[in-house]
Amino acid sequence: MSATLTLPGRLGRGILYFARRAPMSAFWGVVALAILIMAITAPVIAPFDPVKSDFRAMSKPPYEKHVFGTDQIGRDTLSRVIHGSRASLTVAVSAVLLGTTVGALWGLASGYFGGRFDIFSQRILEFLQSFPDLILAMAIAMALGAGTGTVILAIAITRIPFGGRVIRAVVLSLKELQYVEAARGLGASHARMMFRHILPQCIAPYLILATTHLGVAIIIEASLGFLGVGIPPPTPTWGNMLSDALNAGLIPPWWLVLFPGLAISITVLAFNLLGDGVRDVLDPRLRGAV
Amino acid sequence: MYSYIVRRMGFGLITIVGVSIIVFVVMRILPGDPLVAIFGPEGYTKLSEADRLGYMKQLGLSDPLYIQYLHWMGDIANGSFGHSFFRSESVAEMIGRRGPLTAEIGILAVAFSWLIGIPVAIVSALRPNSLPDNVARFISILCLAVPGFWVGMLIVLASLFWFGYRAPLTGASLFVDPWSNFQIVIGPAVVLGMGQAAYIARMARSSLLEVIREDYVRTARAKGLNARLVIIWHALPNALLPVITLSGILLGFVLAGSIPVERAFGTPGLGSAMFSAVGERDVFVMQNLVFLYAVVFVVLNILVDLIIAWLDPRIRYA
Questions:
Q1: For B9-22, what is each residue's pLDDT tens digit?
Q2: Which of A28, A98, A138, B302 is within CB 3.0–4.6 Å of A273 for a Cys-Cys bond?
Q3: Which residues of A touch B41 (CB under 8 A)?
Q4: What residues of chain A, 68 to 87, have a C-beta less than 8 Å from chain B?
């Protein structure tokens, strides 16, 4: 606990602490990390090109050359599942970061200033929360046309109310604390009060929100892909692979259904459990609240 | 109580107006040119200038935006909800034809989630951190991570593969042909219900654990009542309040989740209609369906709040 620890040292200590407090979550955190590495190194580790057809091996069930089989135009399912992780993680991580950040800043301002601005903001967030998230995301993605940017934006907008509400509640309780009052007494500006004195206290709830919402974001992304408003083919995503499988014939080949869905499930499981662990370690009081 | 009902309904009305504005902004203003949304960017460039003007006029898109908005509100007020761009039937007819199936799925899914979730929660709360509790929690974590539409696809595939069975694909009303209606709705309802059961079990467990610690429960036990009876007769009714609230929210999510699940099962409900509307870029149908889903969601939440207020005097008089 000396002040001489370097940043990597402190990070290492933090991770060790996390692993001791929440071993189950730490294990799934490692799985999440492995999926992240898989996404980054996809072009290197995938055995085949995910968009290239092999007309000598069409609709083949799993065998030695194509261990996850091939689809109706001879693309390797394993390579497509590996590449699919890129779309999934890019969208989920950017959407959650964007949505939670915008929501958090909005909640910060709304809680800090209060008054009419706060009432107005609360109403807007309530309107946004009146849509089941998948439906709002579908409508936005359809209106803006398919593409990675649109899907990110569509999912991010559905995450704004959560950030807004939670951070506002935190700010409301912080505002009354004596150290904040002291800063105001010393003549600090609004910006200084918000960013220097209040914002740092919001980091824990922000991190909790961001990690717990990753799993939901991945499921929404997959659902959008499955409904044809996600990232359009030929880019492989787990959602549009499942959608393709349904279009492959009256009876979809089992290997085209099984593997992309397993990939979604394992990834969501990993991020959900990692999120639970982050929540429990950072703030046990928030159990069940976020 | 009456003032509470009036206040809650008033807020609900404001929310519905706000929701309609958001839907209008998203579906009509966000795409820039609605014709781009209808024809897609490539199709749009193939239209001639005259075609564009003709379509704009025919669809009432050349009016100022607030007039278009009022037109839409008028369509909703007279009950037609406007017309599909590709089909002759009005959106209202489509909702009347396909809505009941989806409503059945939603209600069955919630019933199913209670039937599974509450007993599991009671077993968990009776002995927290025991083996059955941990197994139940692990399964509920699993249920939350697995996408329902994928499970649906697997079920359809497995029943075809092993039994050569497939649920009928054409819609059948509950009253005309209950058996084929049951075959259509049971799959989606079970799949959606499993996901909800996980949430219900989680919420009921933590709520029960909290209530069990209260004084009146200890008193009941001190009187010498059987531990199980105390839980079922004394603790459970109070513990269920948050579960009812959650259930209302979940029903809204079931309706949304039923869009991909209906596609997986090939169920001819409202979710499938939404899926085809998205595929055909039918902005008008989409706009009305999105609004309908949001209104149902808002109304459900009001209903749940009123039920809670009716059950819990602390809220009624606050």
A1: 888 888 898 989 88
A2: A28
A3: 145
A4: none
